[in-house]
Design brief:
444 residues; alpha+beta; 4-stranded antiparallel β-sheet; 34% helix
């Protein structure tokens, strides 16, 4: 993905920024008729893919968006909606002359405005899940004795608008190692191939028609993780402190951000725990949780978080990993789901290597969302609850077998990918619907 460092013409950039997407698509097709460097050709083709993602992400017209606004917030009115739109507090853009709102604009308003957070209608399941997690953390803080859980879950994926084409599908599958063990496939909807545990992003691969529903059911055992017990002491590799364009890059901005974080301290004189903790504090105390556009839309995620001071779990984890690597501390990616007996959702966090303890977990967004509960915020530096499933240990890892067309998420895999075989490099499918079901969650 390092082709993202190549520039696109200013006129094209302007058309996309202003929402003239049809014009931009036509302009790209004209440019592609010329002889171009391979990397530049990739960049332009990827821009066509991004435009399709933009259309899918900014999906609600004004009437639809106001209906969602009324359902989300108590006492919401049309004049209020219009004022928030003019103030730029609702995420929208013009697409070919018509205003469209981002798919989760209402939730982001609540994340970023306390008044609207108070007006937001309560999702009881979300509250139950948070309460369940907090009680587990409170127990661990008090007694420090980790528990194990046996979990059975199913993930399914389907094409929302099938065209009766043969497709290839990759669904996430639990890895073994760290806090996870005894992984077993229970059932799969199609003939399948499970990627080896050594790959960075583990999947179950299948083929079939895009009108099929693809599913995988599996079991695994997961442990709560107290990092200071020093269980995982596998030595880091060179990659754990290296750059990985286009996102994990030690740009001038990242270097200046390091200087800002340690403005009054020579970090080279600190031990690695103190350095990592300082970076953790910076992220969890300054970055606000917010939903983001599809990851493919961003040229440099850590710089976005470091300048906007907002981002989702993966954005925060990636900023932490990049800052740690920039000062020589090994850091890795870990991602999959946050999963409880009540339900599951996509989630990302980080691992960091400390000489005293080895590899320990760091969950930036779970820590940052508990700023008003300081012991819990600190807990998520070197510790982790057991409500997890991880399938990925590498950001921007390759699939096995490899995918020929663009991935819906080029960097991570939590809900699955699909491509149409006959279309080869343009066979990407973005209109996907995934479903995660928690079938069993038992304490061992």
């Amino acid at each position: 993905m390092d082709f993202l460092t190549y520039p696109i013409p200013d006129g094209l950039k302007k058309d996309i920024y202003m929402g003239f997407l049809k014009k931009a698509e036509e302009q790209i097709q004209m440019i592609l008729e010329h002889r171009l460097p391979p990397q530049m050709r990739q960049r332009l083709r990827f821009e066509l893919f991004r435009i399709k993602l933009l259309r899918r992400t900014y999906k609600w017209n004004e009437k639809e968006a106001f209906s969602i606004f009324k359902k989300t917030f108590k006492g919401a009115t049309k004049p209020e909606f219009e004022i928030l739109t003019k103030q730029g507090k609702l995420d929208w853009m013009y697409i070919d002359g018509q205003r469209y709102y981002e798919s989760r604009f209402d939730k982001n308003l609540a994340f970023n405005d306390r008044d609207y957070k108070a007006k937001q209608r309560v999702d009881k399941d979300v509250l139950k899940r948070r309460e369940l997690i907090n009680k587990a953390v409170e127990r661990l803080l008090k007694y420090g004795e980790p528990k194990k859980y046996r979990v059975r879950a199913r993930i399914s994926l389907k094409h929302e608008n099938p065209v009766e084409e043969k497709v290839r599908v990759w669904l996430p599958f639990p890895k073994e190692g760290y806090q996870q063990e005894d992984v077993k496939l229970i059932n799969a909807s199609h003939e399948h191939e499970i990627a080896d545990n050594s790959v960075g992003q583990r999947t179950v691969y299948m083929e079939g028609k895009d009108s099929d529903t693809f599913s995988v059911e599996f079991e695994y055992t997961v442990s709560e993780w107290i990092g200071t017990r020093g269980i995982w002491k596998e030595k880091p590799t060179k990659e754990d402190t290296s750059e990985k364009p286009p996102h994990i890059v030690f740009t001038p901005f990242i270097k200046s951000l390091v200087e800002s974080i340690f403005h009054d301290v020579d970090y080279k004189k600190l031990d690695d725990i103190a350095i990592a903790r300082k970076i953790y504090d910076f992220v969890t105390l300054n970055v606000n949780y917010s939903y983001v556009l599809p990851y493919a839309m961003y040229n440099n995620i850590p710089e976005y978080v470091g300048t906007m001071f907002k981002g989702d779990c993966g954005f925060q984890a990636l900023l932490f990993i990049t800052l740690c690597r920039a000062v020589g501390i090994p850091a890795r990616w870990q991602s999959g789901w946050s999963i409880t007996p009540i339900g599951a959702s996509s989630h990302d966090w980080a691992l960091v290597y400390l000489e005293k303890y080895g590899w320990v977990p760091v969950d930036l967004s779970f820590g940052g969302s508990r700023r008003d509960q300081e012991p819990m915020r600190i807990f998520y530096f070197t510790n982790l609850d057991g409500f997890r499933m991880f399938a990925n240990t590498e950001f921007q890892g390759e699939f096995y077998p490899s995918k020929k067309s663009w991935r819906l998420d080029p960097y991570d895999n939590q809900t699955g990918e699909m491509e149409i075989i006959a279309k080869e490099e343009d066979g990407y499918v973005i209109d996907l619907e995934s479903k995660i079901e928690v079938l069993k969650f038992e304490e061992l």
